[in-house]
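Let us work through a complete example step by step.
Step 1: write down the sequence.
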Amino acid sequence: MNILAISAHPDDIEINCAGTLAACVARGDNVTMCNVSNGDLGHVEILPEELAKIRLEESRKSAALLGAEHVCIGAHDLHVYDDDRTRAKLADVIRGVKPDLIIAHTPDDYMVDHVAASRLAFSASFCASLPHYKMSAEGVADICPIYYMDNLGGFAFEPTEYVDITAHMELKMKMLRCHASQLDWMREHDGIDFSETVRAFSRTRGLQCGAQYAEGFRPFPGWGRMRTYRLLP
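Step 2: predict the structure and record it as tokens.
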């Protein structure tokens, strides 16, 4: 299968679904990681232009560890909108990947960019299926299922499906540590060990489903998006 994970910022995918993507790769799937934003406001000292370059390289290193493709749409932080331009860019990516499954933020996530990226995943995936919706990429992509990944802390998110990521937990953590610009400044300025936070939450989801570590998901229940078979590993 072709799996496309769409997130607002660099490191969102690593936090919420990297273990599942690793399990997808292990079963032979092709995985693409797409960030809508370049993450240019995610620091208190590094200026946006420099930070965007740093975060792009961090994302590429993380994807390389997984053996995945990486794409960045290039929107600025807090400028992620479901507008014509951004929607067309993401639809181009979807047409190129032709995913069998899209993993995206939940629509009621805690941060405005996440909510907008969730909406973009829904709208762009439909646009990519329309032959007369003009974009750069040739052909069309089928309308495919969308699975919403967990949010940070799991607030107001009740998974209906879990993926046991125990065998892939250390790879997930290595991918997360590629985002040193984020982990370092949270440790230095906020006193937060974010690696520990992510590991602890993966353990919490694991306790809920009888695994050591797990990630939780919920499918979007819409016409043409449902399947009779399991899509997650």
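Step 3: interpret the result. The chain has one domain: 2-219.
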